[in-house]
Amino acid sequence: MALTRRQKEVLDYIAEFVEHNGYSPSYDEIAGGMNLASLATVHKHISALEAKHYVRRSFNRSRSLEVTSKHRDEMRRLRREAPNEIEIPLAGRIAAGAPVEAMAGRETLSFSDFAGREDVFALEVRGDSMIGDHILSGDYVLVDRGGEARDGDIVVALVRGTETTLKRFYREPGGQARLQPANSEMTPIIVPLSDLQIQGRVLAVLRKYR
To answer: Which of 11, 99, 131, 170 lies at a 20 to 30 A Cα distance from 84?
Structure first.
C-alpha cells in the first residue's frame, strides 16, 4: 500500500526526529512540528503508517514509536537509484588576503565524501556557542554517526538523554567529559561519560548567504 503525501511527510518527520535526538517524538511534538490541527489527526496518520508496516508502537510506554526496517530499506533503494556523485566545477583557488588568480579548469569538487551515505545527516545550528570555530546560528553542519569521538572533535552530544548540544569533546579524569563551547562568554558543560551519548562528529559546515 502506497503512502499518501502527508503520511510520507509524517514518516519522514518521525525518522529525522529519531535520527537527530536518539528517541521518538511525542504526539504533541509531531503535531507542532508538522502543523497538524489536532492530536486526533496525528493518531490517524500514525495508525495508517502502522497498518502499512512503516512504524511500530507500544501502548504501555511513552515515546514508543519506532520506524521499521521497511522505511530504511526503501530509503536505501532510493539512494541506490539516485546518482552516486554530486559534483560542481572547481574553477580555481582564491585567497581571502592578497589576490590570487582564479583559473578555470576541468577539476570538480565532489560532495560524495559527505552526502549520500547512510551515516551522514545534517542539522541546522541554533545559538552562538560555537562562533569561535566559525559555526554561526543558521549554519548547517554535516554530521557523521560512525566512528569514535576523539578529544577535540566537534560533536553532537546528547546529555542525560534530554538535551542535544554542539560542542568540542574532551575526556577528563574521573570518568568525566567536557563539552567545550567556542565562545569565551560561555562555560563548558562537565558531565559523567555515562550520562553522555555522542551522536556524531561534524564533517563540514554549510552556510547560505541568500
So the answer is: 11
